[in-house]
Every structure is written in structure tokens, then in C-alpha cells.
């Protein structure tokens, strides 16, 4: 690989962070995925939201806050931009009037990137966006997943038969053979439930559900050791719903649940995924209208950087064969 052709964030020591056109991590905005290893993509869609909306505004605000991201990881000293050619591939053009049309649009956008051998980290958007992403990148090779969330998102239907909401993506992904339930771990599940058996379907499929009570008993290190045991040994997707965090750290989200992990614990957990065969990820449910301080968008941008670091290392490992 010609590393000299790689893109790096424009340094805040060269051009002030408050200036310029905002892109993810101050990278160039490119439209052709050829030769790009990692695409950062916005999916400005909240048509799957069942309660408080606003995640459609997530990508723009995450771009804005991501101007704070520098090039080198503070703990691992990894420079992901040197390991993997990374760029802002723009937003999917969604159709805010039509959910089914939008699912097709998201799938086609990510399928194009996947065909160009370009891994993706998506900024949502609500959590339904992960389903069309899986349809684009997981056909014929069911993925494992490390899923940070207060919610299992494996409900069946809402409102008398609606199969597509941000509470159903992983039920559909398992049914469609895109997500391997036996290589899926959900971390942080909590909150009042619709009924006693809300998480039973997922567990019956073999999903490892780490409820928040168990998480706090294990702590981040042992939780991640368990996640590696479950998801390791195959291609793995990292899906980060910001409502897995305590709402003290990420208030700007549609379905907050008190009693979650901290931002630093989440960072420790993502860092603990280094060495897994990470193939992509997303950060979802940042809702800027509910986020007056902008902190939730900053959290979203920073978690994208954490995922990027483990993804870039995995790409470098695959390149070495
Ligand atoms: Mn979710
Ligand atoms: Mn959630």
C-alpha cells in the first residue's frame, strides 16, 4: 500500500478546528470508494424511531464535533489513518417519506462500498440502519457482533405488524441469516420491559445477553474477555448505540435508560476488541435536538474513532495475510 496517499485529519495546529467545511475527522470528502479502506458514512435517518426522534440530524452534528479528533490513539498509539486509507464518503440520500424505500437506498449505498472492498463505519441515524447495512455486507457470510446498547433490539413487531423499527433490526438480521446469534454479544441491556420475556427470543437463538447487572459485576475487562470468547474466531461487526451509556454521558438520545456504563468504560471495552477480525461498525441514536451541549455528538464521534482504531488494525492484519 502506498501510505503516502493516505488521508489524515487536518491538524488543528495547522488550520483551526472551528474552521473549514466539517467532514468526519477533518478527512477529505470523496465520492469514489476505489482504493479507500475505510469509509465513514452518514445515514441521516430516524424513520425507525418509535418514540423521540432527531437521530436524522446525527451525522451532521457528529461531523461537527469530530473536528476535535486528532490522529493518534492516546492509549495504543495507533495512527489508524496510517494503517488504513480512510475518508468521508458522505451521506446516504435517504427518503424521509418512505421507510421501505430508504432501507433499499441504504443497502445499495453500502453494497457499492462493500463491492469496492471498502469497510464502513456508519454514523446514524437510528438503530434500524444497521439492518440494511447487514444486508449489504453480510450476505453469504453471517457476521458476529459486539453490540453496545441498553436494548436488545430483537423485538418482533410494533403497532400491530410493523416489522421495521429501531427495536427490531437484530431479530430481522438473525432471521435473514445475516447475523450469527451464537457469535453475538449484547452489553448493557436494561430498562423496563414490555413483558417478562422480552429478551427470551434472543437468548433462545444463542445470543449472549450481558445485562447491566452482570456487566457491573464483571467490569469492562472481564466483559470484553467474554465478548472476545463469543465473537472471536470470525468476522465481527461493532454496533454502538449511545443509549448503552448512562444518560449522564449521552443525554441526547431518543430512548435513554438510567444506570449505564461510563464513556471511559465503553472506550476500554472497544479498545479491548483489538485483535478481533473487525469488519465494520456503526454509532447510532445520537439525537442532536435532544443534545443542547453537543456532548452526545462528541461521544459519538469519539466512539467512531475508537472503532476506527480497532478496524484499521484488523485491516492491517488482513493485509499481512
Ligand atoms: Mn439500539
Ligand atoms: Mn438502545
Description:
- With 321 residues, the protein is of the alpha/beta class.
- It has a single domain (24-320), classed as 3-Layer(aba) Sandwich (Arginase, Chain A), CATH 3.40.800.
- Helices cover 33% and strands 16% of the residues.
- It has nine helices and eight strands.
- It has an eight-stranded parallel sheet with strand order 2-1-3-8-7-4-5-6, sandwiched between helices.
- Helix 1 packs across helix 9, helix 3 runs parallel beside helix 4 and helix 8 packs parallel to helix 9.
- The radius of gyration is 18 Å and the shape is globular.
- Bound molecules: manganese (II) ion (2 copies).
- Residues 127, 149, 151, 153, 166, 241 line the site of one manganese (II) ion (MN).
Give the topology string: H per helix, E per strand: EHHEHEHEHEHEHEHEH
Q: How large is the share of residues in beta strands?
A: 15-25%
Tell me how many strands there are: 8
Radius of gyration equals 18 Å
Report the mean per-residue pLDDT as an integer.
Answer: 97
Question: Number of DSSP helices?
Answer: 9
CATH uppermost class? Alpha Beta
Question: Could you tell me which ligands this complex binds, including any ions or cofactors?
Answer: manganese (II) ion
In terms of structural class, how would the helical and strand content be classed? Answer: alpha/beta
Q: Which fold does the CATH topology refer to?
A: Arginase, Chain A
Biggest beta-sheet profile = 8 strands, parallel
**Strand neighbour order, sheet with most strands:** 2-1-3-8-7-4-5-6
Helicity level, as a percent range? Answer: 25-40%
Principal-axis shape equals globular
From the structure provided, what is the oligomeric state, counting identical versus distinct chains? single chain
What is the first-to-last residue Cα distance?
14 Å
Please identify which CATH superfamily we are dealing with. Ureohydrolase domain
Domain count: 1
CATH architecture: 3-Layer(aba) Sandwich
> Would you identify the regions where 5 or more consecutive residues have pLDDT less than 50?
none
Amino acid at each position: 500500500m502506498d501510505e503516502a496517499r493516505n488521508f489524515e485529519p487536518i491538524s488543528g495546529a495547522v488550520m483551526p478546528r472551528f474552521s473549514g467545511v466539517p467532514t468526519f475527522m477533518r478527512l477529505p470528502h470523496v465520492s469514489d470508494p476505489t482504493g479507500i479502506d475505510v469509509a465513514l458514512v452518514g445515514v441521516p435517518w430516524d424513520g425507525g424511531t418509535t418514540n423521540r426522534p432527531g437521530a436524522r440530524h446525527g451525522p451532521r452534528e457528529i461531523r461537527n464535533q469530530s473536528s476535535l479528533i486528532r490522529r493518534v490513539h492516546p492509549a495504543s498509539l495507533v495512527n489508524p489513518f496510517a494503517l488504513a486509507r480512510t475518508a468521508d464518503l458522505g451521506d446516504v440520500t435517504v427518503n424521509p417519506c418512505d421507510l421501505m424505500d430508504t432501507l433499499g437506498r441504504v443497502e445499495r449505498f453500502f453494497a457499492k462500498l462493500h463491492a469496492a472492498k471498502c469497510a464502513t463505519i456508519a454514523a446514524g441515524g437510528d438503530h434500524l440502519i444497521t439492518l440494511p447495512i447487514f444486508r449489504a455486507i453480510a450476505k453469504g457470510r453471517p457476521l458476529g457482533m459486539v453490540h453496545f446498547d441498553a436494548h436488545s433490539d430483537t423485538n418482533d413487531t410494533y403497532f400491530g405488524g410493523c416489522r421495521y423499527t429501531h427495536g427490531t433490526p437484530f431479530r430481522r438480521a438473525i432471521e435473514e441469516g445475516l447475523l450469527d446469534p451464537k457469535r453475538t454479544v449484547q452489553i448493557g441491556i436494561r430498562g423496563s420491559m414490555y413483558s417478562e420475556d422480552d429478551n427470551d427470543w434472543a437468548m433462545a437463538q444463542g445470543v449472549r445477553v450481558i445485562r447491566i447487572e452482570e456487566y457491573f459485576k464483571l467490569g469492562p475487562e472481564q466483559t470484553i474477555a467474554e465478548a472476545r470468547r463469543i465473537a472471536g474466531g470470525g468476522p465481527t461487526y461493532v454496533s454502538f448505540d449511545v443509549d448503552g451509556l448512562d444518560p449522564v454521558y449521552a443525554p441526547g438520545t431518543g430512548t435513554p435508560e438510567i444506570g449505564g456504563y461510563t464513556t471511559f468504560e465503553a472506550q476500554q471495552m472497544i479498545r479491548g476488541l483489538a485483535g478481533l477480525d473487525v469488519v465494520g461498525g456503526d454509532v447510532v441514536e445520537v439525537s442532536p435536538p435532544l443534545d443542547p451541549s453537543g456532548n452526545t455528538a462528541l461521544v459519538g464521534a469519539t466512539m467512531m474513532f475508537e472503532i476506527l482504531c480497532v478496524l484499521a488494525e484488523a485491516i492491517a492484519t488482513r493485509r499481512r495475510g
